[in-house]
Amino acid sequence: MKFADLFAILSIALCSLGVSDEVPKPSKPTLSVITNCTPQSVTMQDDVEITVTFANAGHGDLWLMGNLKWGFRGGMTLHVGPWSEDGPLPLFVDHGEFTPNEINDESRLVRLQGDTFFGCRRTLRVDQLVRKPGTYRIWVEYLSPLPAGALRQVFWSAEQGSSFSNAVILRVAATTKEVTPKRKH
Predict the structure, then answer these.
(1) Which of 51, 133, 125, 48 is nearest to 88 (CA)?
(2) What pTM was computed for the model?
(3) How far from the centroid of its chain's Cα atoms is residue 136's Cα?
(4) pLDDT block averages, 10 residues each, the chain of length 185
C-alpha cells in the first residue's frame, strides 16, 4: 500500500468520525463583550461613535440587564489607554446608576439565546475623550451592577466578575491637514 493511499483512507476515516477544525462552543452561556469605534482615524475636533455589543458565545440562555448605563455603578466602564500623567483620562467620569425601581424590575432583563446579541452606541467628541493627539486603545468593561440575589430570575450577576471587550485602536491627529506656508520665489 502506498503512502498516498494510506493517507486518503485515514482522512476519510477521520472525516466520518466527525473530526473538524471548528472549536466547540462552551456548553453554558458565556458573555462576550465587543467594542467598535468609528471612525478610527480622527482629529481632536471630530466625533467618534463607540458601539458596544453583548453576545452569548455559548449554549443556553443568558439573562442580562437590558437597560445599559455608562459608569461603574451602571455596569459599563469606558477605558482609554495608555494611562499616563498627561492623559487621556479622567477627562470625565460617568455616573450612571440604577434606581430602586429599575433594580427590582425583572422585565428589564434581556434574554440572549446562543448566537444572539444586543448593544448600545455612544457618540463623544474626541477632545472629551483624550487630551492630545496620539494613538490610544479603547475598551469597555462590563460588571453587572446587581448581585445574584437581587432578582428571582437567574441572570449574569456581579458574582460572574468583569467581562472585558476587545481593545480598539483610535488614532488622533491635531488637524485634518497640516497647512504649509507657500514659499516666496
Answers:
(1) 133
(2) 0.73
(3) 16
(4) 47 44 61 94 95 90 87 87 61 70 80 89 91 90 88 88 94 67 50
